[in-house]
Design a protein that fits this description.
Chain lengths: 275, 306
């Protein structure tokens, strides 16, 4: 009997799309905006304050003890100007990961929102793409806000600092796509906690609050393999408009991470949504 | 062409065979029931029809298409009422209908009047601007059912549609479903309310442990697995079991429960008279028609399924 099991499967890319998408990502985004529109704006704004508070306490509090530090290209900059771009990169990472891991997990397991969506013409690809889009939209708002704060405090010394906004989106995309794929492996809250266990040390040690030269060389190599370090360095270079060969490496790293993350999530779509 | 064709349909979760090689077909316009105790595999079968649960093996066609390879296309003509309401808590009642229609890619020019019509149908017109969380359980259920009709589905999947509803709401719902059936909509219903199955279903299958154990119309199942009537006798809990042997001659089949003895017979009154002639006087007696519930309990047993 099992040998004769027939499973008509549409072939190739086209077949894959027919199985996973109706091409209606717009409806998922529309729902997202409708919810944002009816939400309490205080909740949305609160997410914006986290990096601002870090900047004020660490940048100016610790900064008063530390004085100037060595910035990109060896130029001295204030401690606040040193950590501000790093905080922007971290905020882009945290926001994107929160939306693509905890939020997706909750809507999937508890609110059963996706269960409802997937009972319609929507396919898992539509839902995933729509949710990543919404995560990036939120990231865009925060990036604009925080960049404005950095500029207002005089911590950005180049027009290139404006490029931090699209780059924040790239960083968010890389983390969001990876985060969603990883979430597909998790079934309990305890497992979800692993995400935080990875994130906190990455934030503390990715040359965010002090230069990477503080570590022995072997540790430096390890940190340089992690995504956040590339994001931090990239942002720091943009904030002062100083570029070198490594700028291209950092950018390439995130483009590659995004491509891989999207491919990975795509592969895990069915495991994530169609259990 | 059948609306649904399932052959050797199987879904395995690890060691558990949730659905264990079932075969069934549903004709257009038919009202088809999946009956079974909790964990029998009904909901899993429903999810596979919608393509939101991937099967382990077997074949399944919905309107001639495989829901796994053509999920969005298959679901465009399906309406789904899940077992637990999954309304969007972040949207208002009417917006729930509108957004759900948007997921089907339908235009607002169609959706606005349709949403109002469905709110009327679900008797929720005055709750249109209410947040979902502020609705009662019955209202949420009605809204979920209204939502499932937003795309004018040709096949409606109802997973325990009236669980948690009061009798008034159940009867209203049955009436609405019957009207949909009259317009040619195919209904697929899972339930463990036997009166619901008798009300709604032209034909049904009884599932147990992932398998189909019986199939037919409610009336034919009663004929096949039960007698026309049932005589229920109570002699007091100490005596019930002891009297079974003495009662055996008066019925086609006999079942002793802790609180009463059931005698399955063609003519219950006649059996009762015969019991009395034999010198036995029950504390209480009741003659009733056999129901689907008798069939169900016979096929799936009386022990609790966890």
């Amino acid at each position: 009997m099992s040998a004769t099991t027939v499973r008509p499967v549409g072939g190739g890319v086209r077949g894959w799309f027919a199985a996973n998408s109706s091409g209606n990502v717009r409806a998922v985004v529309e729902r997202g905006f409708r919810v944002v529109g009816s939400q309490n704006w205080a909740i949305i704004v609160s997410g914006f304050f986290e990096p601002v508070l870090y900047l004020l306490s660490m940048g100016y509090g610790v900064g008063a003890l530390v004085g100037d530090v060595t910035g990109p290209g060896g130029h001295p900059i204030t401690y606040a100007a040193f950590i501000a771009p790093a905080l922007l990169a971290t905020s882009a990472m945290n926001g994107a990961l929160y939306d693509s891991t905890w939020n997706v997990f909750f809507k999937l397991r508890f609110a059963k929102l996706y269960q409802g969506m997937l009972a319609t013409s929507l396919g898992p690809l539509d839902v995933a793409a729509g949710e990543i889009f919404m995560a990036l939209f939120r990231g865009l708002l925060y990036a604009i806000g925080f960049t404005a704060v950095i500029a207002a405090l005089g911590l950005a010394t180049s027009w290139w600092a404006l490029a931090m906004i699209p780059v924040a989106l790239l960083i968010a995309l890389g983390f969001a796509s990876l985060g969603m794929a990883v979430t597909s492996y998790f079934t309990t809250f305890q497992q979800m906690d692993w995400i935080n266990i990875v994130l906190l040390p990455m934030f503390l040690f990715s040359a965010t609050l002090f230069p990477i030269s503080a570590f022995p060389e072997a540790v430096q190599w390890f940190i340089m393999a992690l995504p956040l370090w590339h994001g931090v360095e990239l942002m720091r270079q943009l904030s002062v408009g100083h570029f070198e060969a490594s700028t291209a490496v950092h950018l390439t790293y995130f483009v590659a991470l995004s491509v891989l993350g999207i491919a990975f999530t795509t592969r895990r779509l069915r495991s994530l949504f169609l259990r | 062409m059948p609306v649904i064709e399932a052959h050797a349909l199987t879904k395995t979760y690890g060691e558990l065979n949730a659905v264990d090689g079932i075969d069934f077909e549903v004709a257009p316009g038919e009202s088809f029931g999946l009956l079974g105790p909790n964990g029998a595999g009904k909901s899993t079968a429903m999810r596979m029809i919608g393509g939101t649960s991937l099967r382990t093996s077997g074949t399944l066609l919905v309107n001639g298409l495989d829901p796994e390879t053509h999920g969005p296309e298959v679901r465009a003509s399906l309406g789904v009422v899940p077992q637990t309401d999954n309304l969007d808590p972040e949207l208002k009642a009417r917006d729930n209908l509108l957004m759900y229609g948007r997921y089907f890619g339908l235009p607002y020019s169609y959706l606005r009047p349709k949403a109002d019509e469905l709110l009327e149908f679900a008797q929720l017109t005055d709750k249109a601007a209410e947040k979902v969380d502020n609705l009662s359980g019955g209202m949420k259920r009605r809204l979920t059912i209204a939502r499932s009709l937003i795309n004018d589905p040709s096949v409606l999947l109802l997973d325990e549609p009236t669980t948690g509803l009061d009798p008034q709401a159940r009867h209203i719902l049955w009436d609405r479903l019957f009207r949909l059936k009259e317009t040619g909509v195919t209904l697929i219903v899972t339930t463990h309310f036997m009166d619901e199955a008798e009300q709604l279903c032209d034909r049904l299958v009884v599932m147990d442990h992932g398998r189909i154990v019986a199939e037919g119309s409610p009336a034919s199942l009663i004929r096949q697995y039960s007698t026309r009537e049932v005589l229920e006798l109570r002699f007091g809990s100490e005596r019930n079991a002891a009297l079974v042997d003495r009662l055996r001659g008066f019925a086609t089949r006999i079942e002793a429960l802790p609180d009463r003895v059931l005698l399955y017979a063609e003519d219950g009154e006649e059996s009762l008279a015969a019991v009395r002639r034999d010198g036995l006087e029950p504390v209480t007696s009741l003659v009733r028609r056999s129901s689907l519930e008798d069939v169900f309990l016979r096929l799936t047993g009386r022990s609790l399924v966890e």
